[in-house]
Amino acid sequence: MKASWPQVIHDFWNAYGWDKARTRLGPPTPDAIDRMDECMEWLRWLEPEQMRLVWARAERLQWKRIMAQLGVCRETARQRYLLAVATIAARLNQKVA
User: Fold this and answer.
1) Pairwise CA distance, residues 85 & 29, whole Å
2) By the 8 A CB rule, do 55 and 79 touch?
3) DSSP structure class, residue 72
4) Distance between CA 81 and CA 57 in Å, rounded?
5) In this structure, are residues 53 and 70 in contact, taking their beta carbons and an 8 Å threshold?
6) Candidates 3.30.2450, 3.30.565, 2.60.40, 1.10.10; correct CATH number of 29-96?
7) What is the pLDDT of residues 38-64, one digit of tens each?
8) What is the pLDDT of residue 13?
9) Residues 74/67, Cβ–Cβ less than 8 Å
10) Torsion over CA of 72, 74, 77 and 79, rounded to 10 degrees?
11) 70 and 28 in contact (C-beta within 8 Å)?
12) N or C: lower Cβ tally within 10 Å for the chain?
């Protein structure tokens, strides 16, 4: 059975903002979705392994897990990530020029 009473805060530190408030983002705007769709097209310019690496970083996956997936050290994974991002930047700069 559910109670309709609010949650009781028993600790002084919780009641007076000792902990940071947790906020959630609202739903994305249509403009944000359009920008995301455009960015998803950029991934098609990459090799499959580069695509997975860039996507993993976009999901904020820890380097430790990425290193385990790729079977490389942190610096190698980082260099591959930077190369993938540079590839995207180069293609975007070609469009502008």
Assistant:
1) 26
2) no
3) S
4) 8
5) yes
6) 1.10.10
7) 999 999 999 999 999 999 999 999 999
8) 62
9) yes
10) -130
11) no
12) N
Q: In this structure, are residues 46 and 54 in contact, taking their beta carbons and an 8 Å threshold? A: yes
More confident residue, 9 or 74: 74
Q: How many residues does the chain have?
A: 97
For residue 92, give every residue at least 6 positions away whose Cβ sits within 8 Å of its Cβ, in sequence order, or none: 42
Could you tell me which of 49, 41, 39, 37 has the C-alpha nearest to residue 83? 49
Domain ranges across the chain: 29-96
Residue 1, amino acid: M
